[in-house]
């Protein structure tokens, strides 16, 4: 009780609760909250399965299943539910825009259609979706019979429930056509359904009316992480664990596209560049050892002339990024990418600066966390602590030493303090400069969707060639969220399927739910950082009356130049480190955004 009241006192002192809330809380008796059980309860099957695999890697199957181990995970149940909601709604929205692919199958309904439906396998995590069969179709609606459940005695429930799917709740189902096109608007249910069609339906907010739904072909994953500890708060590995146990958050290796660019720019900032450095955004060609020519392009297929590093990352300019990587040396970026754990053995070729190499969502979220936490190295984990059958702690993820945590009484002693023994893996000033630049991505760049949150958020979008992969990784001072979307067998997702339009809204929805009621904390500015007004176009110190003024973050001893200094000329270099990956030429990188 004394410990609880001490914590409440600290919450009051730090502004998390009011005096009235504090006084009411300390008067309440100490209650025990009964913890619910079961992975399915929190839509956490992928999370639980990965914990099981990790425990087996650590202790083996025998110890896990018969050793009496107690495992405390990092899962936040509310965040996990929010993550599942955000990802599935985003995938459904995209899939609907690509049209109706038709019924699963068509069956004979002249007999007991309920018994036939009951024999069909349905993923266990689709609730409130239900499998049904079309019994009747009119010009205004379809009557659908729902799959009956099995009774405790093993027999099929004899009750046959029927629901209505009105025209307005199936108008989205325009016929899917090749090349991501759709047919004409739906004007009659007969254009979509016929008697005997086996379909999925979901209840609407209007009682008695149901939606026509379909299982998305598109897949994706979401990870939410505490950037200071590496604790994974939520993880969703796909639309339905019941349909596919493949965990795309950890197992899927995909090209990150422009989501890799912050690490290119961070490398530059570590090598005497500044956010105000100006790169020439003009056409450039690289002659390869095989005689071919690689010409990186911007997503818009346009060039914008001299632009600052900040502009390059905010607007996701490909040509600027390649020029920058070439000017500073691609091997320096290779060292950075491997140091933060994105790659283990990155080929030192310029195409890697545009995200041409494959990695995982977990690796990317962990790497971004090091920007959010001031450059400290962390290790992602789903397990907090493991105890044996006698209650002894045999594993603990948090290796920090706590001064004062073992005090027997909580009266009149110094506040407990954790000693931060994490390795400084990215320069503290560089981490803040990149964070500041990625705040610009949200405010003025490719991730304006997150601006709706009305709180400090930084992040970067990523889209690969032909929109085969869409990414967004965003963060606040205490939360990093990454989303990847794409088909399991990579193929173009269609026009407009960028990280900003597809992945960023999913992150925005999750953050809106997860951060509701929490204070909007600004990013910590390291001591010594100088915020100097500059001209956003030229990178020079802003003059009185300048219309293009922004506050730019400079390291101690850095200042904006008096005159614009252009980086990277117009020469056509011959380089064996241009764009060859595993013996093949990477071309068409204008599709990266």
Keywords:
alpha+beta, OB fold (Dihydrolipoamide Acetyltransferase, E2P), Beta-lactamase, globular
- Give the helix level as a range of percent: 25-40%
Mean pLDDT: 92
The biggest sheet amounts to: 6 strands, antiparallel
Gyration radius from CA atoms, angstroms:
27 Å
The fraction of residues in strands falls at 15-25%
Q: What gap, in angstroms, lies between the N and C termini?
A: 54 Å
Task: Put the structure in a nutshell.
The protein has 593 residues and is an alpha+beta fold. The chain has helices spanning 2-13, 19-27, 45-59, 61-66, 77-97, 113-118, 261-269, 309-314, 318-328, 330-339, 361-372, 428-443, 499-514; strands at residues 70-73, 105-106, 130-137, 141-146, 162-166, 176-177, 181-182, 197-203, 210-213, 219-225, 232-236, 278-281, 286-287, 293-294, 305-308, 383-387, 393-396, 401-403, 417-419, 458-463, 470-476, 479-486, 530-535, 549-554, 566-567, 580-581, 584-585.
């Amino acid at each position: 009780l004394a410990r609880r009241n001490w914590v409440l006192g600290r919450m009051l002192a730090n502004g998390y609760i009011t005096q009235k809330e504090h006084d009411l809380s300390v008067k309440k008796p100490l209650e025990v909250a009964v913890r619910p059980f079961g992975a399915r309860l929190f839509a956490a099957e992928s999370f639980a399965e990965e914990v099981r695999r990790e425990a087996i890697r650590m202790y083996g199957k025998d110890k896990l299943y018969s050793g009496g181990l107690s495992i405390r995970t990092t899962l936040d149940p509310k965040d996990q539910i929010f993550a599942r909601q955000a990802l599935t709604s985003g995938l459904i929205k995209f899939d609907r825009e690509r049209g109706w692919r038709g019924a699963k199958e068509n069956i004979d309904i002249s007999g007991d259609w309920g018994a036939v439906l009951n024999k069909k396998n349905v993923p266990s995590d689709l609730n409130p979706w239900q499998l049904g069969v079309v019994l009747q179709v009119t010009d205004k609606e379809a009557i659908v019979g729902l799959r009956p459940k099995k009774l405790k005695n093993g027999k099929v429930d004899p009750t046959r429930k029927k629901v209505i799917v009105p025209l307005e709740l199936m108008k989205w189902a325009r016929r899917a056509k090749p090349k991501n096109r759709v047919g004409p608007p739906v004007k009659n249910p007969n254009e979509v359904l016929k008697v005997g069609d086996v379909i999925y339906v979901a209840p609407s907010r209007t009682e008695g009316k149901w939606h026509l739904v379909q299982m998305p072909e598109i897949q994706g994953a979401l990870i939410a992480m505490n950037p200071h500890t590496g604790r994974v708060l939520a993880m969703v590995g796909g639309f339905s664990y019941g349909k596919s146990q493949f965990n795309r958050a950890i197992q899927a290796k995909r090209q990150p596209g422009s989501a890799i660019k912050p690490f290119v720019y961070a490398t530059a900032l570590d090598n005497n560049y500044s956010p105000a450095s100006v790169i020439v955004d003009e056409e450039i060609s690289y002659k390869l050892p095989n005689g071919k020519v690689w010409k990186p392009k911007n997503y818009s297929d346009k060039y914008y002339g001299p632009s600052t590093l900040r502009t390059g990352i905010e607007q996701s300019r490909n040509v600027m990024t390649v020029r920058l990587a070439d000017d500073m040396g691609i091997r320096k970026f290779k060292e950075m990418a491997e140091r933060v754990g994105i790659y283990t053995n990155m080929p030192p070729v310029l195409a890697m600066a545009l995200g041409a190499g494959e990695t995982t969502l977990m690796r990317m979220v962990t790497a971004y966390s090091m920007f959010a936490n001031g450059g400290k190295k962390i290790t992602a984990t789903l397990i907090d602590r493991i105890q044996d059958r006698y209650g002894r702690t045999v594993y603990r993820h948090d290796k920090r030493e706590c001064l004062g945590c073992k005090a027997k009484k909580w009266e009149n002693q110094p506040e407990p303090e954790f000693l931060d023994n994490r390795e400084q893996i990215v320069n503290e000033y560089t981490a803040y400069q990149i964070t500041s630049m990625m705040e610009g991505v949200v405010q003025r760049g490719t991730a304006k969707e997150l601006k709706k949150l009305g709180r400090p958020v930084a992040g970067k979008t990523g889209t690969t060639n032909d929109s085969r992969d869409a990414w967004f990784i965003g963060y606040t001072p205490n939360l990093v969220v990454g989303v990847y979307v794409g088909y399991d067998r990579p193929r173009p997702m269609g026009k407009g399927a960028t990280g900003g339009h597809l992945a960023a809204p999913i992150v925005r929805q999750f953050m809106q739910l997860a951060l509701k009621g929490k204070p909007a904390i600004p990013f910590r500015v390291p001591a010594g950082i100088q915020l100097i007004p500059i001209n956003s176009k030229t990178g020079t110190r802003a003059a009185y009356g300048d219309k293009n003024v922004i506050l730019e973050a400079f390291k101690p001893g850095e200042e904006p130049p008096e005159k614009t200094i252009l980086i990277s000329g117009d020469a056509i270099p011959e380089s064996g480190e241009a764009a060859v990956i595993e013996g093949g030429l990477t071309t068409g990188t204008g599709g990266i955004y």
